[in-house]
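tool_call: predict_structure(chain=1)
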Amino acid sequence: MRTIHLVSTGIVSLAAAGATYVHGVWVSSALVLRPLSEFCHAKPLGEPPVVQAWFPLTYQCRWSDGTGTDLVPAYVNPFLFVFLAVSAACLLLSVRNVIRDRTSHN
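tool_result:
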């Protein structure tokens, strides 16, 4: 595969990872300034009431009985990791192609 195609695929994959991440943040209500009772209302809240991580994306309501509900859809993190892996693989393959082309011309 030509290097320009690998670089293009890597950039598109990186953009898809960014769009997936933004979608996950948007859907999970992680940035919404509302009371927890509006989206964590099924049971009494535990301590801490919300567990949040930015990578992998997690926004979880924690209940007093020890269970939790993640507000980030289940498909977000797998897609994010796949897109990042494809982007990294394309970057590595394009670097390999450039090095191989330079050594073969000498």
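agent: DSSP finds two helices and three strands in the chain. Proceeding to next step.
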